Structure formats: C-alpha cells, structure tokens
Amino acid sequence: xxxxxxxxxxxxxxxxxxGTIKFHDWIGDSWCFFFSHPADFTPVCTTEMGRTAxxxxxxxxxxxxxxxxxxxxxxxxxKWIEDVNETQNTTLDFPIVADADLKISKLYEMIHPEExxxxxxxxxxxxxxxKKIRLTMTYPMSxxxxxxxxxxxxxxxxxxxxxxxxxxxxxxxxxxVIIPPTVSNEEAQKRFPQGFEELKPYLRLTKVS
Length: 209
Ligand code: BEZ
Fold this sequence. Notes:
The protein is of the alpha+beta class and about 210 residues long. It has helices at about 25, 45-55, 55-60, 75-90, 105, 145-165, 185-190; strands spanning about 15, 20, 30-35, 65-70, 95-100, 120-125, 135-140, 175-180, 195-200, 205. Benzoic acid binds near residues 42, 44, 141 and 142.
C-alpha cells in the first residue's frame, strides 16, 4: 500500500551500525530524516552520507535524528563509513540500517523496479515526533540530494507547526510567511499582532520569529 503524507510511518525493528533499533522508540520525541541509498562503496552515496555527517549539528539544532539505509550488511556499512570519513573529512555518527534482504526498502517503497530490483532509490521521509510522515522526496540513483533543501523543508514544517502558517516558494527561515486562507482577517489580527500585508484577500504575509 502506498505511503502518504500524514500516514503513521510503518514501525520496524532492524539491525543498524549502532545496534538493533525499534524505529518508533528510537525516534522518541525527535523528528527523523530517514533516507535510503542504492549501495555502499558508490560515489554519489558516499558524498551524501558525508554531507549528512557534516550537518550533524544542524540536524541536532532542529531536534532531527538522521537514519540512513542501504541494501547492504552492517559489516559492509562499517567498512564503508571509514571511506566516507576519510574522503568527506567527517565523522559519521548516525545509524545506517542494514537492509540486505530489502525488508525495510520494500516496506517504505524504496525499490523502484525500473531503476533497480535489488537496490533502493534515493528516498527521503521526514517523520515528526508523532511518527507521522510529513514529507517525502524521491530522487533517482544518479542525482545526489540537496541538503540545504532538506534542512529548509524541516524548518518550514517546524515553523508551520509552531505558528499555523504556510511558507511561500523558496522560503528560508526569517522570510515572510503566509497566513492560510482559512484564517479570517479578524482572527489573523489576534494571532499575528505584529500585523500582516494583504496583497489579495487570499494572499496575506506576515513575519514570525
Ligand atoms: C552512486 O552512489 O554513485 C550510485 C549508486 C548506484 C547507482 C548509481 C550511482
């Protein structure tokens, strides 16, 4: 069955480079950036794993736990992490799921048979502390992900939750946000005492901190 935004992320218990984890328990009160890779010892994946490790403090500042996955064993992951650390000048400290039997890749629909029947594509699931799937992205094997965008959408989701707002195209933290059309002007005046601009009745902008 397809996984949709708002669905509860399927729970699982699995071996990782940091021991066995029970997914929901491991997420706890954090958010999770769960992302898959086709294979260990491959070039694009090596840069993505390295970038995630380099951004550890950025994820931590947002209360987000990264969890990687590729369809290889723990032993292979551990050897590969040495290469990631060496070539990307970092220390990778987040867990990587060992999914050699494709159990989790299939559960999360990370196998796209026209790309490969044995390796995962580059899937992203942003999961909130209630274990709801809040964002998905799917990239082909040949295209590395944009980690500025991954941090940006996490910011957008968290600011949206905190203030009940939406974010415009290319928004980054600190930019003006959108008051949803479901909020009346009267209600907006109460909720956003800092004021708002009304470009159209359905397009109202304000600033939140
Ligand atoms: C890579 O990580 O470079 C890669 C892996 C599988 C297919 C294509 C590229």
